[in-house]
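Our consortium's second objective concerns turning raw sequence data into structural hypotheses that experimental partners can test. To show how far this objective has progressed, the report includes one record in full. It was chosen at random from the queue rather than selected for favorable results. The single chain below, 338 residues long, was entered without modification.
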Amino acid sequence: MAVKFLNDIGKKLNEASRKELVQAIQGASGRVIIGETVTFKQSLIDGVSNVELIKSWGCDMATINHYNTKMPMIPGLPSTQEGIEKFFSYWNEGENKGKIPSTENVESSFQSTFLEFGFGRTIGEVKRLSGIPVGMTLEPVTEESDYPKSRIASKENAKTGMDHGASYITMISTPSMSSKDFAGCVNNVREGVEERGLVKAGKMPWGGSFLTKTDEYITIKEIELLAKAGADVIILPAPGTVPGLTIELVKSWVNVIHECGLLAETTIGTSQEGADVAVIQRIAIDSKMTGADLFQIGDSVYGGSCSPENVMAFAKAIKGQRHVLRRMAVSPMRGEVL
């Protein structure tokens, strides 16, 4: 099945395999936009999820940060009864399950807003609503850490994420983890994802922790380790988002990534997604000049999302008005009713 990222929507795009997604991204010639959102923040506009919003602003894919495989939630969707009981059972003492309170105690308008945090809703549900591939992040930390076990980059969590409907899993290296250990996490996730979706891995800024020598921010050896571990996409900061990262330097890494047979993704994840439109457009064009295949804009403005103006400006700079308007308008029902 030939999948075209700039044209397809809904079932055809969302049921694409790992191989089909890779080929579709390659065929888009550097015009695939990814937006980010955060699963535990109230959606920017009530009654609609941020995934649906960023699709309507021109994004072709969406990454949900902090998605919990044991306690899934999609703000902007109504909570399920099972989700409510599971969520509140973590907060109540003993074995008592959470309950929807009586309106004699908590007014209905407050409850309807609060329960739109989408307790119990999964990636697969919002993927069907938006009609675009939706992925999630897992954290490359050790099992001994005090991080929630259902958020760790493990085979089990990756498999559960895919069962929930994820199109891909994203992992970002931490300063405390060696490149070998990080590659091990990527390999574990690859085993859980199998051929059902993509594995994306790489580096983003961590409070300057990686900034020893800028030209060694990521090395050829690290890229090769990630390729061997089963990554499909290597993530890099966009030029100008980290001190010293020029177009030429990021381009040199993109060339190595392509030589390894992988896809390259540049990202804005340093809160610069909240800069002026002119800055966003410059970062977009600079990113495209690196030869990358995918371009991601982060979630750090308000409501767990970037501002609509900046998402659209970013998307227009990368792929032009025609493709942005198509993505904004096209219904996920196409292919099912036509």
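The partners drew two points from this record. The longest strand covers residues 32-38. The two ends are 18 Å apart (CA to CA). Both points have been shared with the crystallography group to help prioritize constructs.
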